[in-house]
Amino acid sequence: MNRQFHFISGLPRSGSTLLSAILGQNPRFHAGMSGPVGGAFNTLLGELSGRNEYSVFISDEQRKRMLKGLFDNYYGPEFEAPVIFDTNRIWCSKMRHLRPLFPQGKVIACVRNMSWIIDSIEQLIRRNAFQPSSIFNYQPGGTVYTRAEGLANGEGMVGASYNALKEAFYGDETANLMLLQYETLVSNPASAIAAVYDFIGEPAYAHDFDNISYQADEFDLRAGTPGLHAVRSKISVRERMSVLPPDVFRRFENDAFWLDPTLNPRNVRVA
Fold first, then answer.
1. Domains and CATH numbers, the chain
2. Closest by CA position to 33, among listed 49, 17, 54, 46
3. Which helix (H) or strand (E) holds 10?
4. pLDDT, tens digit (0-9, with 9 covering 90-100), for 140-179
């Protein structure tokens, strides 16, 4: 099938599910929450490496065909849309692989003030107090300090994706990268989506920002985090007080490097 693949990546709790829900209104597009292709891609890449005793028989061209085949086979005939958006936080760390496999494929990295990302996850944990979350390996202990530290370290849910984002932002493949700010998406969705369409080279579509539909309740419940992928039907900005202690909130408030033009030497698009 002759289809175009694009990728949604970036930071957690930064609007990737909302973006997918909006894009999914366009019948030309298929977009959803994070799926299994990213993990399968990483596993296959490892299995095709030198640790496999038969790797001597595998050329780079064969590796490319097999890796690209993951997408062609997962998104089989049942996916009729000609434009596919695959979502996974891993893609920001795979720009060097995606560029030769999908030369026209674009990566849209969703970003958000880091303090509010940590706050958003903490809100979820408190809201589901009787259901330990997969985010913390279903461990019921800890405090807001240990949870914030676990999220932000290099192996954590937020820290790992943040490091991958910086790798993409300062790498050689930035012509295929755009950052989309959560703050823009919820305060001015029409402008944010127009920027996405311009970036991927697709004709405009009349989206309904007052009737967004997306459900992943079964997945969220299994993950012990109901509401993890909840999307409100009408996009709006919600003003609220953070549940983080002030010292935790201040720790991350200067991490939005994408807001400083002097830290953007490759002129990556930021919407």
1. 4-270 (3.40.50.300)
2. 17
3. strand 4-10
4. 888 999 999 999 999 999 999 999 999 999 999 999 999 9
Output the pTM of the full model.
Answer: 0.89
Q: Which residues contact 83 (CB under 8 A, 6 or more apart)?
A: 3, 4, 6, 28, 29, 30, 200, 202
Q: How far is CA 95 from CA 105, 206, 222, in A?
A: 10, 30, 31
Token reading at 201: 């080279």
Q: How many CB atoms lie within 10 A of CB 209?
A: 18
User: How far is it, in rounded angstroms, from Cα 255 to Cα 162?
Assistant: 9
DSSP assignments along 188-242, one per residue: -HHHHHHHHHHHHT-------TT------HHHHHHTT-TTTT---SS--------
What tokens appear for 230 in the block?
């909840």
The pLDDT tens digits of the residues spanning 36-55 come to 999 999 999 999 888 878 78
